[in-house]
Design brief:
The chain folds into two domains: about 200 residues, Rossmann fold; about 230 residues, Vaccinia Virus protein VP39 (Rossmann fold), CATH 3.40.50. By secondary structure, the protein is of the alpha/beta class. The strands form five sheets. It has a seven-stranded mixed beta sheet, with helices on both faces. α2 runs parallel beside α5. α5 links the parallel β3 and β4. The protein starts with 10 loop residues before the first strand and ends with a strand. Belongs to the methyltransferase superfamily. METL family. Keywords: Methyltransferase, Transferase. GO terms for molecular function: RNA methyltransferase activity; S-adenosylmethionine-dependent methyltransferase activity. InterPro entries: Methyltransf_12, Methyltransf_16, METTL2/6/8-like, SAM-dependent_MTases_sf. This is Methyltransferase type 12 domain-containing protein.
């Protein structure tokens, strides 16, 4: 959910090598494989040649080439303008991408042979004569490889949204797929086909977006392979790989999309919008959520835009659906209590369930757009008498003015009897302000007052969460980690006589129950 944490320093966004994504179901895995070409056709129909920036690195680093996966020609035409005497064979998986290449103003059949081909199952020789190019198949030729590397920021975002197909292989929100390569995997892949590595390098660049006060860590892998046993070797006779993993060049990506050296790191023109407002709520989808005694229709960001949106509060996360079902099955958890939800996002399903039994509910988030959609969702799903019991407020974690305003809503200003949060522990930088905020707002008169967190572990481990909670004066009363409960405590009683757990059996969900 949108955390709304306040960060006085520039935000660092990077991938964690210890995170593990949730796998998509076998049905969707097979569908993404079966319809892969169709998804890429739809991608190029929507974006044409505007999504990827023109790539200028080939003429600087490799010279003559043979291109596989040409896309919409963002590499081809900058190259042939630099080298007027070369002929380019360019293929892509998507026929629509090839059509865009042929419609380009600089396309000339005598300079470019563009064709569609699935190189995993079709023969390139149907469109290219054997031994007719300077790279890839000819003796002394080279395979030039450049793609996403393990640890790239985009991988982290896909990982956190449960869009993993297999190890390092992910599906984006629009159905297209991406693989994030490691040095070892790429070298093994080529060596099994008789190639040896001539050079391999993992680049890491920090791209700064000053308008959004973000620093984004981008990783990509670049390699040159040759047929046969030749290649660079280390002193022990093993092939040596050159790595640039510690490179920390900073490039500025301005919101104005001005031309800059950021072109050299192969960023799409829309990448910075991943952390801006590249979404369209006019085309929002409506998701039906059912829990015991409740049937909600929730308006939310469409799936195709979710992987390019900064605002996590515009999406509905699995832990919120899980907690919604838990609360619906166990009304006694919140009955008659003053309830606060932190980082509720735009769906508000837990707050809406709570409104049916609680004294009143304050639903909060740090993002104004998420709160606007939350108001729309609550108004369309609750009867007027329940709608009066929900107060929707902005709460930037750690912000003194927001904290004061929200605390004053707790009847006598003494705090809330129960605070809930779902998927609010995904950001390491947000853990401290989360617990500091919760400690400021939890009731200081009710010894039974509780903080309940439900989450899927991502970049923050359990020990980090617990140590920060203890430092803020919370004590762990009960925990339910990945569906495992060590004793018959408070949380395990919530699952007696219902099938909530079985409904979410594929998710690695956890619940922590704190008191002060």
């Amino acid at each position: 959910m949108a955390a709304g944490e306040q960060q006085p320093q520039q935000q660092q966004i990077s991938a964690s090598s210890t995170s593990s994504g949730r796998l998509v179901t076998p049905f969707w895995k097979e569908k993404y494989e079966r319809d892969a070409r169709r998804y890429w056709d739809i991608f190029y129909k929507r974006h044409e040649d505007r999504f990827f920036k023109d790539r200028h690195y080939l003429d600087k680093e490799w010279g003559k080439y043979f291109e596989v996966g040409c896309g919409a020609g963002n590499t081809i035409f900058p190259l042939i303008s630099t080298y007027p005497d070369i002929f380019v064979h360019a293929c892509d998986f998507s026929p629509r991408a090839v059509d865009l290449v042929k419609k380009h103003k600089d396309y000339r059949p005598d300079r470019v042979n563009a064709f569609a081909c699935d190189i995993t199952s079709e023969q390139l020789t149907e469109n290219v004569q054997p031994s007719s190019v300077d790279v890839v198949t000819m003796n002394g030729g080279r395979v030039l490889f450049r793609d996403y590397a393990f640890g790239d920021l985009a991988q982290e975002r896909l990982m956190s949204k449960g869009q993993q197909i297999s190890e390092n292989f992910y599906v984006r929100g629009d159905g297209t797929r991406a693989y994030y390569f490691s040095n070892e995997y790429l070298m093994d892949l080529f060596s099994t086909c008789g190639f040896t590595v001539e050079e391999i390098c993992v680049h890491n660049k920090q791209v700064e977006n000053r308008s959004l006060d973000l620093v984004m860590n981008r990783n990509w892998i670049q390699a040159t392979f040759i047929l046969g046993s030749a290649g660079l070797q280390g002193p022990n006779g093993q092939h040596d790989s050159h790595t640039c993993e510690d490179e920390k060049d900073k490039l500025t990506a301005n919101a104005s999309q001005e031309k800059s050296t950021s072109e050299e790191i192969d960023l799409s023109e829309d990448f910075n919008n991943m952390f801006g407002t590249s979404h369209n709520l006019d085309e929002a989808q409506v998701l039906r959520i059912k829990a015991k005694g409740h049937d909600f229709e929730i308006k939310m960001l469409t799936k195709e835009h979710q992987h390019t949106c900064k605002l996590t509060g515009l999406m509905l996360w699995e832990s919120a659906q899980f907690m919604c079902s838990v609360l619906a099955e166990n009304p006694s958890i919140l009955a008659g209590k003053r309830v606060l939800e932190l980082g509720c996002g735009s769906a508000g399903i837990c707050s809406m369930v709570a409104s049916t039994v609680a004294q009143f509910v304050v639903a909060t988030d740090g993002d104004a757009e998420s709160l606007d959609l939350l108001r729309e969702n609550t108004a369309s799903n609750l009867e007027p008498d329940l709608l009066k019991k929900i107060l929707i407020r902005k709460l930037f974690w750690g912000d003194k003015d927001d904290l004061k305003a929200v605390r004053e809503l707790s009847s006598d200003g003494t705090g809330f009897d129960c605070i809930i949060g779902t998927d609010v522990t995904y950001n390491p930088d947000a853990i401290f302000p989360l617990f500091k905020t919760a400690r400021e707002l939890i009731s200081n008169k009710d010894s039974d007052a509780a903080l309940i967190l439900c989450y899927i572990q991502r970049r923050v481990d359990e020990d980090s969460i617990l140590s920060t909670a203890m430092a803020q004066g919370f004590r762990l009363v009960d925990k339910w980690i990945n569906g495992i409960h060590e004793s018959n405590g408070i949380i395990s009683s919530w699952f007696c006589g219902n099938d909530v757990c079985s409904s979410f059996r594929n998710a690695t969900l956890s619940i922590l129950y704190f008191q002060v």
